[in-house]
Design a protein that fits this description.
By secondary structure, the chain is mainly alpha-helical. It has 9 helices and 2 strands. It has 2 domains: about 160 residues, no CATH class; about 70 residues, no CATH class. The relative contact order is 0.15.
């Protein structure tokens, strides 16, 4: 408990956490755009963007293992999307890298596989740094600055709040299941779990409706008032300027 509180205090005092959320959002968008513009042969730029991300992680106040753990949980989905790329060629002659039992691995496909995986990882890491170093209420205020529609912000806000309720409902149902069904045949367990899924979704719908009507009855109109005011400082200007510099550099190298 003490270590968790110390970590939260460290993150709160981190340099990146004290920046204006608008500057972090703009920098993240510029960073993602620049990464998507990179070509596979721009190895030096790839290394530069990795170094930028490492510096951002250092100033975010989170340990590097935190982001490694998050990436390892997400990467299987990325691999599932891209693992067939090495088996496809761009039509270039003498593109076969090696063949194993009539299955060919192509150089162009392997390059695209590495390129896509690196870009996905960099984009996900930049998004994790943004969301991890910015309180959710300030993040919503920053997204209002770029004129996102209120309905989108409302859905985002409800989803964030509802996640904790969903986890709580799942934990209650799991405890109830374990306390009532100790040893059952597998087909009965599958049947019981199928019924639990149906009840779970009904509870989700009912909870979301109650939350929405409660907010409407208290005067919610799509706006998210906040006590804290956003304060743009010199460090925010420097951060956004760095983002624009790297974006222009990437476009010139494209």
């Amino acid at each position: 408990m003490i270590s968790t509180l110390m970590e939260r205090k460290t993150v709160k005092l981190a340099i990146l956490t004290r920046l204006d959320p608008r500057s972090k959002i703009l920098f993240t968008f510029l960073y993602i755009f620049s990464v998507l513009m990179l070509k596979p042969d721009h190895i030096s730029l790839f290394l530069l963007f990795v170094i930028i991300l490492a510096v951002m992680i250092f100033f975010s106040g989170f340990p590097a293992l935190y982001f490694i753990h998050k990436i390892l949980r997400i990467y299987p989905m990325i691999f599932l999307i891209t693992f067939l790329l090495p088996f496809n060629s761009d039509g270039i002659k003498q593109d076969v890298l090696f063949t194993v039992e009539n299955i060919s691995i192509y150089k162009s496909g392997l390059i695209r596989f590495i390129d896509f995986n690196l870009k996905y990882i960099l984009i996900i890491l930049s998004t994790l740094i943004l969301t991890g170093s910015t309180p959710f209420n300030q993040l919503v205020k920053g997204l209002e600055f770029i004129k996102l529609p209120n309905w989108f912000l409302s859905v985002l806000f409800f989803m964030f709040r509802l996640i904790y309720h969903l986890a709580e409902e799942m934990e209650k149902m799991h405890i109830a299941y374990q306390s009532r069904y100790i040893s059952l045949p597998y087909y009965i367990k599958i049947k019981t779990l199928a019924k639990m899924v149906g009840v779970y979704f009904i509870r989700i719908i009912e909870r979301s409706e109650r939350t929405y009507f409660t907010m409407i009855s208290r005067g919610f109109s799509g706006q998210f008032p906040s006590i804290s005011k956003l304060n743009w400082q010199l460090n925010d200007t420097i951060l956004v300027s760095i983002g624009f510099i790297f974006t222009i550099t990437t476009i010139m190298w494209y």
